[in-house]
Model the fold of this input.
Amino acid sequence: MAVEQRPDQLSQWQQQAMTVPESLDLFLGGGRGGGKSFLLAALFLRHCEQHASNARCLVVRKSFPGLQDLEAEFLAYYRSIYGSALRFDSQKHRFTLPNGATIQLDQLERETEFGKYQGKSFSHIAVDEAGQYNSPALVDRLRSSLRAPVGVPVRFVIVANPGGVGHAWLVKRYALQAPWQPFTDPATGFDFVTIASTYRDNNFIDRDRYAKNLMASCATDPELGRAWLEGDWSVLRGAYFASVLDERRNMIEPWPHLPKLGTRWQTVDKWRFYLAHDFGVAAPSVTYLFAESPGAKCPHGIYYPRGSMVMVDEETTTSPDDLNAGIGLTVPDQAARITDMCKRWGIPATGVADDAIFNRTGGQAGSISDEFSKAGVTFSPAKKGSRIAGWQTMRRLLADAGKPDVPGLYVSRNCRIWWETVPSLPRDPRNPEDVDSTSADHAADASRYGCTGATQMAVTTTLRMNY
Done:
């Protein structure tokens, strides 16, 4: 049975969370229903009571509608303590406590909105539902407003559940860290503690009914439902590819080499090698070396059915700190990196790419594909057609990996960005047949072009292989 939680009542998990020193930032990353919002209100209350008018707290979320429930919970919590002495400005979404401390709720969706925080100072900042941000860029930028007078501790709190477009960067930074153990976030250099709860830690709700309702809300995506219930970020292998992707079947060990071009091989197996490229400058560029099997063995001696596709290597401009951002390389610089990869494997730099790079830009260079061609990389249009049809082709190949008589899709462990992003890609909330295009889907796009565009190539490369 549910029991109303009073401000002076904390669950055992919430009590333990309150003991983490304020000098450490927090990642509250468990499942749903664990009491994270109530804990956040309690953390702010303690800070405000201790530092009075020097305490200025801020909670941001991607949209105001998403803040409504949190605002109502905060209002009930603080009114139960201060009564009419609490001032609440519903226009500015700001609470002012009797001692002058303030707690403000606000929205931050895009870069252009960040200006409203410039020049402002907050001693505690929390980002609620951080998984709604496809990139950590805006979340990190909020730190520029985290400052307070000497003697007033500052703290950054990130609140998130598994799933969403930000799943990959949250996993990479925080979610899989050892719980309750301080660690330094290499991206920001700040010390964090990851603490997680589930609905089982919250004795103030009807836990059995909550679990049933939560799973019912994810009837079409039970993997996400289990992740929300258990708070286990490693459980969620991606809402879109969850049913077809399995590391045990799809991940392969790196190939040691490819045979050099030549004609003196006693056994001739016509493997075809080509590139698949998704272009970006501010966003990442991702290029894969594909090997299409004729129904033969690879350098490891493993047999791949005819038509199987093996992603052998990866070249990417993905930022090390943001899986949805590029490092701004020009086309000639990207081409140099791609040709270097091809030289390592002894193949020509030719393949398929997003149709958009063949559009004329209006400049002297012609098109992006023309720029690549001048720099030694030749791309043909992938003629990708429908995104959904392409995803279905890719899903079928992933699902068939490991079967002895049908082609499958296999991805080398060397393809690091692929394994960091593709398994956790969410569905588009408006169209569950598609991948959410606001997520870090650049590696997925490149591999989709490789799966669907190989037959459209104007030039293909066949190497003679002997094992």
In short: The radius of gyration is 26 Å. The chain has 13 helices and 23 strands. The CA atoms of residues 83 and 359 lie 63 Å apart. Residues 261-268, 458-467 have pLDDT under 50 and may be disordered.
